[in-house]
């Protein structure tokens, strides 16, 4: 097996050295080696892809839909996405020039930030949050500025945002993920509007990662693009709402002038998404069957959320109020200390339950655990019983 020439290693992108370990998948892999472990780690829906989406993919393959698609995605999918945004969130986007299909929301994050960041640019990030935002910003030569929301029930307040903007007047963008991974917390329409007004008189671009927008349990999701569309890039996709993680279909929507460079970057990275996956996503976003499938999944997630919140509260955990997504962010009982990595490691090795340490999600996550309830109720009940036994023995 080849070994890299030693001197070549000195020529790598220097930003690699600036990266903080993300750790989520590494921790999951280590925990997976424990025999009989119950995993509440990854944000991976346990549902199968709905039949209407699978059939659309099959039809695409059998009809020899196998050639290069436009870099921004098929016209049918972009039209379905535009209808989806209009129907769910009262947003108006032109499929031709204001929407681009990406390889999952992950690629969308990279494309959006690549189009914005010059070396040294600051990017504001409300934390705790999905750590990829900080990693990509760093890789592109930018500087993430973490805004710790833990003292405000994991909600970014207008005053906190204004203070941060004043302290970082040259910041290029604000990344806002809601409903939130890892907390499950989301924002009311009024809260979103207040944040929008705090941004409106600045030149900040808001990168709104709304991948969990269809999984809001009480009330409706409100996109910040409703208030400041002229400076918002929306990220979304089919992975979480339709259990299509392996199909890798996301999208970006925004004003035409911003979408030009963002779409160009995406096209250079991917050429285009896969035809059959885009056909499946067209059914997800553009049919009543797709809408109904999401509603069925959401009802199951809500039942699991309610069970897990009640059960962990009885065990002495304090939890954020998860009104969306499929995560619970739970503060470790005071009697167990504040080292979330040590607690999660021991819980995996001795209690046979795998969760993710909260500190992996940035400022404000220390002392918390993220539990994914994108798994069966039987698994959740087993996990709770094991956590109870673990706390007794610890």
From TrEMBL:
Q: Which residues form the Aminotransferase class I/classII large domain?
A: 37-387
Please report which protein family the annotation says this sequence is part of.
Belongs to the class-I pyridoxal-phosphate-dependent aminotransferase family.
Q: What class of enzyme is it?
A: transferase
Q: Which residues form a coiled coil?
A: none
Highest taxon of the lineage? Bacteria
Gene3D superfamilies documented for this protein: Aspartate Aminotransferase, domain 1, Type I PLP-dependent aspartate aminotransferase-like (Major domain)
* Keyword terms of this UniProt record: Aminotransferase, Pyridoxal phosphate, Transferase
The protein's Enzyme Commission number: 2.6.1.-
Please give the cofactor(s) recorded in the UniProt entry for this protein.
pyridoxal 5'-phosphate
Asked if RNA-binding is a keyword of the record, the answer is no
Which Pfam family, an example, fits this chain?
A: Aminotran_1_2
Q: Which InterPro entries match?
A: Aminotransferase_I/II_large (IPR004839), AspAT/PAT-like (IPR050596), NHTrfase_class1_PyrdxlP-BS (IPR004838), PyrdxlP-dep_Trfase (IPR015424), PyrdxlP-dep_Trfase_major (IPR015421), PyrdxlP-dep_Trfase_small (IPR015422)
Task: Supply one GO molecular-function term.
Answer: pyridoxal phosphate binding
Q: Name one GO biological process term.
A: amino acid metabolic process
Species: Limosilactobacillus oris PB013-T2-3
Keyword Cytoplasm included in the entry's annotation: no
| Protein's UniProt name | Aminotransferase
């Amino acid at each position: 097996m080849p070994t890299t020439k030693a001197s070549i290693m000195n020529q790598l992108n220097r930003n690699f050295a600036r990266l903080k370990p993300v750790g989520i998948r590494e921790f999951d892999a280590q925990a997976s080696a424990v025999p009989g472990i119950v995993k509440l780690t990854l944000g991976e829906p346990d549902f199968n892809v709905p039949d209407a989406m699978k059939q659309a993919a099959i039809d695409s393959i059998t009809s020899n839909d196998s050639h290069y698609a436009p870099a921004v995605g098929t016209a049918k999918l972009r039209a379905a996405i535009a209808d989806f945004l209009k129907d769910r969130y009262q947003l108006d986007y032109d499929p031709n020039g204001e929407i681009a299909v990406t390889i999952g929301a992950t690629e969308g994050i990279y494309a959006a930030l690549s189009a914005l960041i010059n070396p040294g640019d600051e990017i504001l990030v409300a934390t705790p949050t999905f750590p990829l935002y900080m990693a990509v910003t760093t890789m592109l030569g930018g500087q993430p500025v973490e805004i710790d929301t833990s003292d405000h029930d994991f909600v970014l307040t207008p005053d906190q945002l204004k203070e941060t903007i004043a302290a970082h007047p040259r910041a290029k963008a604000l990344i806002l993920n809601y409903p939130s991974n890892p907390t499950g917390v989301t924002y009311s329409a009024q809260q979103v509007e207040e944040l929008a007004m705090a941004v409106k008189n600045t030149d900040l671009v808001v990168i709104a990662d709304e991948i969990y927008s269809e999984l809001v349990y009480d009330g409706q999701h409100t996109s910040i693009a409703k208030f400041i569309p002229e400076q918002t890039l929306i990220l979304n996709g089919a992975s979480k709402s339709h259990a299509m993680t392996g199909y890798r279909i996301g999208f970006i929507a925004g004003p035409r002038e911003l979408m030009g460079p963002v779409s160009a970057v995406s096209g250079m990275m991917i050429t285009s998404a896969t035809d059959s996956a885009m056909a499946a996503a067209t059914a997800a976003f553009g049919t009543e069957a797709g809408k109904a499938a999401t509603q069925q999944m959401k009802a199951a997630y809500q039942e699991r959320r309610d069970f897990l919140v009640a059960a962990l509260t009885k065990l002495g955990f304090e939890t954020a109020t998860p009104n969306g997504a499929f995560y619970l962010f739970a503060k470790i009982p005071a009697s167990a200390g504040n080292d979330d990595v040590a607690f999660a490691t021991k819980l995996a090795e001795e209690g046979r339950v795998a969760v993710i340490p909260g500190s992996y999600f940035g400022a404000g996550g220390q002392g918390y655990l993220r539990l994914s309830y994108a798994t069966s109720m039987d698994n959740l009940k087993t996990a709770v019983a094991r956590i109870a036994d673990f706390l007794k023995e610890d």
